[in-house]
Amino acid sequence: MVQACLVCSRVPEGSLAAWAARADMEQAEKPSASAKKHVRLQERRGSNVSLMLDMSSLGSVEPIQPVCTPRDITLQFLRTSSHLLRREELQQRAQSLTQLQEEFSKIPPNFVSPEELEIPGRASKDRYKTILPNPESRVCLRRAGDQEEDSYINANYITGYGGRPREYIATQGPMPNTVTDFWEMVWQEQACLIVMITELQERKEKCVHYWPEEQGSYGPFTVRLRGLSEAAGCVLRDLSIQLEGECRQVKHILFPSWPDQQTPESAKPLLHLVSKVEETLQAAASPGPIVVHCRMGCQQLRDQGQVDILGIVCRLRMDRGGMIQTSEQYQFLHHTLALYASQLPEVGSH
Question: 254 pairs with which residues across the strands?
C-alpha cells in the first residue's frame, strides 16, 4: 500500500483515460443508491479498483548503500592516518605549533560511552566518569570466573611497535578499592615493569600509594621493597610480589615530571626514562607487558630513520580513548623525539 501511494502520480495518461471511460459506462447503468454507497466503500478500500502502474517510469533504482556511523568514521581515521617524518624534518615540525595544533585537533579522541560498559558495579572502580576502557581491548581479571563485576579493571592492552599485540597496558591510577585489582593484574599479566608518570597528588588525588614502604599485603598478594634508587628525575624501586609459594620480581619506575594535562620542563629526563625501560626489559625474565609513553617512537626512529607520531597517537587511541591529552603534549612528543633523533648515529655510519 505504501508503494502504491508513492507512485500514484506516475500512472500513464492512457491508463487514466481507460479508467475514465469505464467510469462513464458505470454511470450510464445508473446503479441504486445502496449500490453506489457499496462501490464507494470498496473504492476507498482499494478492493474494486485496479491501477496499471508503469514501473519503468521510475527509472533505475540505486542499490541500498551501508550508512557509516560516527564510530565507523572515527575508527577509519584512526586506522589510516599517517604522517611520516624523517629525522631531519622532526626539529622543524616540532617548532610548528600551529600546524601541530591543527593536526592534533583532527584526531578523534575515541572516548567510550558508559552504555558500552554495562557492568554491575563498574562506576565505583572508575576514577573519572569520562575516561573508560575501550571494550575491544580492555583487560579482564580472570579470577572472577562468571562474575563480570569482579573481572572489571579500568585498563587496556596497547599494541606495540610493529603491531605487536599487548605490549603495553594503560591503566588509571589505582584507587583505594582497586589496589588489590591492580596487583592482581600485574600478577596475571606477568608484568616485569610498572611505569608511573604522575604524582600521587596534584590539584587533587591522582593515584593512591599502592606500593609498600617496606612490606604490604594487598588481598592475597604480599609486596616487598627490595631496593630503592634515584637517577635523572626517576625513582626506581625493586619490588617482589608473592602469591602463596611463588615469588616474582617487578621493577617500579616513578617519573613525576609529567604534570597532568601539561608537559615536563625538559625532554632529557623522559629520554632517560626510556633508557631505563630498555635496560629493564633486556634484563627481565618475564615476557609481560609494560606501560610507558614515547617508546614506540624511539624504536621506529632507530629502525627506520623516520617516525610517524600521528600514526602512533592514532593507534594508541584505537586501544584506549584520549591518549595524549593536549596539543602541547603532542608538540612535546615531537620535540622529545627530535632530541632523540639528534643523538642517534647517522644512517650508514659505523
Answer: 196, 235
Domains of the chain (ranges plus CATH)? 2-58 (no CATH), 83-343 (3.90.190.10)
pLDDT (tens, 9 = 90+) of the chain, 350 residues, equals 433 333 333 334 444 344 344 444 444 445 554 444 444 444 444 444 444 545 455 455 566 666 778 889 999 999 999 999 998 899 899 999 999 999 999 999 999 999 999 998 999 999 999 999 999 999 999 875 666 778 999 999 999 988 999 999 999 999 999 999 999 999 999 999 999 987 787 778 889 999 999 999 999 999 999 999 998 788 999 999 999 999 999 999 998 877 666 788 888 888 988 898 888 888 887 778 885 535 789 999 999 999 999 999 999 999 999 999 899 999 999 999 999 999 988 654 44
Cell numbers 467510469 correspond to 23
Amino acid code (one letter) for 239 = L
To 10 degrees, what angle do helices 97-105 and 327-343 make? 120
Q: pTM of the full predicted structure? A: 0.77
- d(CA 131, CA 133) in angstroms, rounded, equals 7
The active-site residue out of 68, 192, 247, 294 is 294
4, HSE (Cβ side, Cα atoms, 13 Å): 7
Query: Around 316, how many Cα atoms within 13 Å sit in the side-chain half-sphere?
Result: 24
- Least Cα distance to 310 among 76, 71, 78 occurs for 78
Burial string for 323-348 (b: 16+ CB within 10 Å, else e) reads bbeebebbbbbbbbbbbbbeeeeeee
Q: Is 234 a catalytic residue?
A: no
